[in-house]
Amino acid sequence: MGARFLGLMAVLVLVTGLAGCTGNKDKTQNTGDGATTTTQQTDGTQVATDGQYAPGSQAQLVAEIGDRVYFGYDQYDLTPEARSTVERQAQWMKTYPNVTVMVEGHCDERGTREYNLALGEKRANAVRNYLISNGVQAGRVQSISYGKERPAIMGADETSWAQNRRGVLVVQ
């Protein structure tokens, strides 16, 4: 009887756990006036009830423009591709004048912690300064360096390292 009881408890725990995974959106009310309302998912992403991303949200930035640029090894200058992305980010920010952002500077795992914090700061500032030079008000853009402390991808190969050498725009 004890094994049967434990089996039933295991099934109950599994069913209860799965029930919590059935939906990611918080419940919202339909206003009925045709207005687009937003809901926040459990991961923090804002999505309009009509399936579109909320205007000025991180989700919209990622989906429509891209939130990151990449850097070469031991580099902090913006490549032509990175400049193009930051120019589109600046235009997006001008469309949403109330949006403020944090630019995160990241590095791969090679090098000392101190060196990578300094390099990450240069990368974040390169993105920040280019946003400002493209017409974004300086007060709307902050920067921070995480050095090698927050890798996007775990791994000790060039593919992983290339993904970790980045500047990321985060809507505040």
Write a compact overview of the structure shown.
With 172 residues, the protein is of the alpha+beta class.
Word description of this protein:
26% of the residues are buried. The longest helix has 21 residues, at 113-133. The protein has a domain at 54-172: OmpA-like domain (60s Ribosomal Protein L30, Chain: A). The strands form 2 sheets. Strands 3-6-4-5 form a 4-stranded mixed sheet. The chain has a two-stranded antiparallel sheet with strand order 1-2. It has helices at residues 2-19, 58-64, 80-95, 113-133, 158-164; strands at residues 38-40, 46-48, 68-70, 101-106, 141-147, 166-171. With 172 residues, the chain is an alpha+beta fold. α3 (80-95) packs across α4 (113-133). It contains 5 helices and 6 strands; from the N terminus they run αββαβαβαβαβ. The model is unreliable at 3-46 (pLDDT under 50). Helices cover 40% and strands 16% of the residues.
What secondary-structure arrangement, pairings included, does this model have?
Blueprint (H helix, E strand, L loop, with lengths): L1 H18 L18 E3 L5 E3 L9 H7 L3 E3 L9 H16 L5 E6 L6 H21 L7 E7 L10 H7 L1 E6 L1
Parallel strand pairs: 4-5
Antiparallel strand pairs: 1-2, 3-6, 4-6
